[in-house]
Design a protein that fits this description.
The chain is α/β, with parallel strands linked by helices. The protein has 2 domains: 168 residues, Rossmann fold; 100 residues, 6-phosphogluconate dehydrogenase C-terminal fold, CATH 1.10.3660.10. 50% of the residues lie in helices and 13% in strands. It is built from 10 helices and 8 strands. Strands 3-2-1-4-5-6-7-8 form an 8-stranded mixed β-sheet, with helices on both faces. Strand 7, helix 5 and strand 8 form a beta-alpha-beta unit. Helix 6 crosses helix 9. It is elongated. The two termini are 39 Å apart. The model has no long low-confidence stretch (mean pLDDT 96).
């Protein structure tokens, strides 16, 4: 296939590198800044630097940009996309994206398949991208209204470049679960390091500090967009977290040893039941 990768950050760069390393597909890169494109050409991550007109030869377009930027890119350049091509995104939200992309797919006669690669790092940019980023990672597929054949093509490419498992779901279920598994931990990490004690943690911290604070090294602009566009599921998860923290706090303040131990044991048993 001719594959156009839009966005040469960590995800787009890793897609390009993985496709070139593990498949025989041709990769065309599109990016706002030329610096990353030049690096991608030099290291062999892409075969050529593309423009909007390059979309006319693409069998697949992978949008590795912010959620609303993905929609805006298609709104602006959808007229160039080859009829029957597959367009997929990598956004961390789906309810806001899928209806808009499906509408655009009908307007410009392409097939949209929503996806979310569950992989990344604390750092961003092409320089930290790697062909092995997706090895054994989960690949979430949100078919929207796509035909089975197009969905199968997208999933087959995912497995070919290293993803370990594929999970099909709806946009609503995706956003509900991502609020818990991804967005809530980022909120927690940021709130945690805002404590005045954080400035003096060296010499007092070990694994627990590193585990909880790790994802506080955040791309603030991206995660602000993700949080706000998924505000209802995320707010529900925050309410649950705040309620559970309040129960523990109240047991500590009241000196209720029995209640505190019961809450901690409930957490431990929940984790153990998952076999993790």
């Amino acid at each position: 296939m001719n594959i156009v990768v839009v966005g040469m950050g960590i995800i787009g760069g890793s897609y390009a590198k993985a496709i070139k390393k593990y498949t025989k597909n041709k990769v065309i890169g599109i990016n706002r800044s030329e610096a990353s494109l030049k690096k991608a050409i030099e290291c062999g991550a892409i075969d050529e630097i593309g423009t909007a007109e390059s979309l006319s030869s693409a069998d697949m377009v992978i949008l590795c940009v912010y959620p609303m930027a993905a929609v805006e890119f298609i709104e602006k350049n959808g007229k160039y996309i080859k009829s029957g091509a597959i367009v997929t995104d990598t956004s961390g939200i789906k309810s806001e994206i899928c209806p808009k992309m499906v509408e655009l797919s009908k307007k410009y006669n392409f097939t949209f398949v929503g996806t979310h690669p569950m992989a990344g790092k604390e750092k961003n940019g092409f320089d930290v991208s790697e062909a092995e980023l997706f090895n054994n990672a989960s690949f979430i597929c949100v078919p929207c209204e796509a035909d089975e054949q197009s969905v199968a093509v997208v999933e087959a490419l995912a497995l070919e470049i290293g993803f370990g498992c594929i999970r099909r779901t709806t946009a609503q279920e995706h956003d509900k679960m991502i609020a818990f598994t991804s967005q809530l931990p980022h909120v927690l990490a940021c709130a945690y390091v805002l404590s005045p004690c954080c400035l003096n943690h060296k010499g007092f911290s070990a694994g627990s500090y590193r585990d909880v604070s790790r994802v506080a090294n955040i791309n603030a602009q991206l995660w602000t967009e993700l949080f706000l566009e998924n505000k209802e599921p995320l707010s529900r998860e925050l309410d649950i977290l705040i309620d559970n923290i309040s129960k523990i706090k109240n047991a500590i303040e009241s000196g209720d040893e029995k209640e505190l131990c019961a809450l901690l044991n409930k957490g431990r048993k929940t984790k153990e039941a998952l076999g993790e």
